[in-house]
Each structure stands twice: as C-alpha cells, then as structure tokens.
Amino acid sequence: MILRDAVRVLVANWDGSHTVPSRRLYPHQWSWDSAFTAIGNVHWSPRRARSELLALFGAQWDDGRVPHIVFNPRVPEGAYFPGPEFWQVRAPSGSATSGIVQPPVHALAAWKAHLVEPDPAFLRRIYPRLVAQQAFLRAARRSPEGLISIVHPWESGMDNSPAWDLPLKAVQAGQSGFVRRDLADVSADERPTDRDYERYVALARAYRDSGYRDPGAFQVEDPLFNAAYGAAESALAKIAEVCGLDPEPHEREAAAMTAAMVEHLYEDGLFHPRDRLTGCLIRSNSAAGLTPLMLPGLPREIVNALVGTALDRFALKDGVLPSFSPVAPEFDPARYWRGPSWINLTWLVWQGLKERRPDLAGPLVEGVVRAVAQSGFREYFDPFTLRGHGCRDFSWSAALVLDMVAEHGLDGLPAARREVGQQAGGLGESDDVGDHVLA
After folding, report:
1. Which of 233, 264, 255, 354 is nearest to 299 (CA)?
2. What is the average per-residue pLDDT within 414-418?
3. Residues in a beta bridge with 221
4. Which terminal residue of the chain has fewer beta carbons within 10 Å of its beta carbon, N or C?
5. Is the pLDDT of residue 282 over 80?
6. What's the confidence (pLDDT) of residue 410?
7. Distance (Å, rounded) from C-alpha 204 to C-alpha 8?
C-alpha cells in the first residue's frame, strides 16, 4: 500500500512535463526537487524520470547555471513569493526562472535513472548540459582552494539551517514590503521567521540588481553543495564512459573536490561550512556535514569518524536522521531545517552508508518508512515523534521512499528495483509525457 500511495502522490503532482513539489505551497518546478523526484519516478515511469530532468535543463541559462525555480506561466504571480516579477529574468528558452541555483544532484539522478532502465541516448542528450552546469560552478563560484561557494541560503537547499545564522548577521535586512504566501498553508512555527525572510529577500534583490554576477555579502562553502558537486563528477565519469568519452577529467575533478573538502572543511569528526569572506570555518552541528559520506574517494579514517559523529551527535542508531544535532542549543524539532528529519537529506547520507555500513543504512530506510506510515508523505518530520510537518503529499518524500524500498525491501518484500514498479501498480505510466527538446 505504501508504494501505491507514493505513486499516487507523484501522479497528483505531475504537471505535464515535470513534478511540482506540492500543489499548494510549491506550484512551480524546483531544481533539486526534480532530481530527487526523477530518482523515484524511474522505478515506475522511466519516461517521466527522463522528462523531469529534460524539462528542467530546458531552462538552463547560457552560462550553464540551472535555476533553482522554473516558473509555470499558468500559475498566477501571487501564488508564490518571490515569483517571476521579483527575479526579472528569463532563460534562453523563454521560461521565467529564478537567478540562483541549488545543489547539483542532477548528474547522480541521470545516472541512477540509467541504471534502472538503460538509455544511452538519454545520457548522450543530457550529458553536455550536466557538464555545463558543473562548468558554471567552477567559473563563477570556485575559490583558489577548489571549493564552490553558495551566495544565498536558498542555494544550500537547507534554507534556515542554524549553520547560516552567523554569516547572515552580516546581511542588512531591508523593509519587508512583501507578503509571505507560505504561511497560508503551513504554521509559522514550522517555517523560517520573518526576520529570516527579510534577509533572504535582501540578498536575492542585491544579487538580481547586480545582473546575477556579484556574489554579495553571503558567500559560504557548504559541505552538502560541495559533496553534491563531487558526487556529480563521479557520476559524470560513468556517464562519459557510456557516451564513449573520456571519464578521466571527471574522475580527476571528483578527487580534487574530495581532497579540498578534507583539507579545508573537515574538523573534529564533521564537515563544516566555511565563510569565504572571512576564511573561517562555521563550526556547526548540521547533518549537511555528514553528506560527504557519498563521496567514493573519502578516506577510510574520515568515514569512520563521520559514522561515529552520526551515532553520537545525531542518534543515527535510532534510524532517523535529524537535520541538526539534537544536542545543540539551536535544535528545533519542528522548524524547517533547524532540526526536523528530511527524507532527501537521509537519502544522501544513506548513499554513503549502503556499501560501507549496511548495518546503519538498513535502519535508515526502516525509519523513513515508519515516518511516512505514521504521518504520510510530509515535507519533514519530528525526528523523535515522527509527527509530520510542512506541506502534505510532498513529491521527493514519495519518490525517495520508492528508491529506498527498491534497494532495501519492505516488510518482507525483497529489494528488487523493477518489482517496486509492479507493486506500485504502474499508475499513470500510460500518460503521454511528451518529448522535451533541449534548445
């Protein structure tokens, strides 16, 4: 039943060429949401998985950036803030978009889709776009130490993480002058504060007014973002081989990123963000510091230290991963990225544990299944009670449950990728998803 319910969520949130994260709160296409959704969709509708990524990359900019939102012109401007009128930019395709990015997990999604249903033609089609995405980050955001900076908390995907509290103090918050649409659907106790939003909008406005060129007052080297970049290069090496191209440049880049992260972001059993403007580590207790576990070249001693930290500071032995350490004073079990458990963050850490520590990876899957069985496919969950928070019927929660169950199994159902689609019943597979041509 849980598999069919997951597919029902994805069917309900399908919008013709892509999946919205949720119908009410997030009515457009979000960048890393689409990558995670594709990873789940491929188990029951490979065509939708490919369409998800092709639709997103159809709005890629000439400089290679993949915007974090692609706006649906059929959705009224007032349905989401900040909308197209705020960002004031269009992709070469004509689509209205935002001007910032999100973690580059898309190459990993493309490769995982290929593993489930091999499609070399799809990989050849999207490979140049994935390469351009990485090239933009190197050209526009890379430091001399080899690390990639984010220029807005929204680019981390973990918007109001306590890890950003210190660098955000340097951001001058202006007058609000905007209406928060999110509070119409979700309690204010579960969302970023008004003060947070004032700073977010001030940063975004300044970046927009610079023509999306000046990084501005917030420049942070985030462990999750950099780990995603490194994992993308590893995935691109495999994709390049399928396409008959040389994987070595991608392998070299992945190794260089891993080395840079170890040298500059690792300390005391956890990876930490670094403020590029001050050169100082931002010592935090964010679970983003565990995501480098997904880097295949991470040294064994650091893997072991991260696992120890996950067990000691994040209570990973209980099978649920909070987004911020419960032992930290900033922890809040219900407020967005300040403590609740998110399925996508759990999935990223699970990627690094499947082969190295299956004894911990299995309970993570079981914890995710318990959460959705109790509370449904919510946006995020209290890591202790598993009470659901945020919006309901959240797409990546449904999609990543499908992927995790496909590998791990569920209540006597053995791990079997193709059988997940059969158990889900193939709902909606016959729908015409169209052919999305990259301009």
Report:
1. 255
2. 54
3. 274
4. N
5. yes
6. 74
7. 35
Mean pLDDT value across the chain: 93
Catalytic annotation on 196?
no
**CA 317-384-163 angle, 5° bins:** 85
Neighbours of 412 (CB within 10 A): 5
Judged against a pLDDT cut of 80, whether residue 412 lies above it is answered with no
- Which token pair is 349? 């850490």
> What is the rounded distance in angstroms from the CA atom of residue 230 to the CA atom of residue 300?
17
List 119, 159, 198, 403, catalytic entry = 159
pTM recorded for the entire structure: 0.95
* 99 neighbors 87 (Cβ within 8 angstroms): yes
159 annotated active-site: yes
Q: Are 354 and 303 in contact (CB under 8 A)?
A: no
Q: Give residue 413's pLDDT band: very low, low, confident or very high (50, 70, 90).
A: low
**At 271, phi and psi to the nearest 5?**
-85, 140
* Alpha helices (H) along 142-277: 153-156, 165-168, 194-209, 223-242, 248-264
With residue 296 as reference, give the H or E element that holds it.
none
What are the structural domain ranges in the chain?
2-424
Q: HSE of 434 in the Cβ direction (CA atoms, 13 Å)?
A: 13
Quickly state the pLDDT bin for 421 (edges 50, 70, 90). low
Which runs of E-coded beta strand occur in 339-437?
380-381, 388-389
Helix (H) or strand (E) run with residue 62 in it: none
Q: Of 33, 379, 382, 393, which one is the catalytic site residue? A: 379
Question: What does the buried/exposed string (b/e) look like for 245-273 if buried means 16 or more CB atoms within 10 Å of the residue's CB?
Answer: bebeebbebbbebbebbbebbbeebbbbb
Q: What are phi and psi of 90, to 5 degrees?
A: -130, 145
154: which 2 tokens?
């929204």
223, two tokens: 């462990």
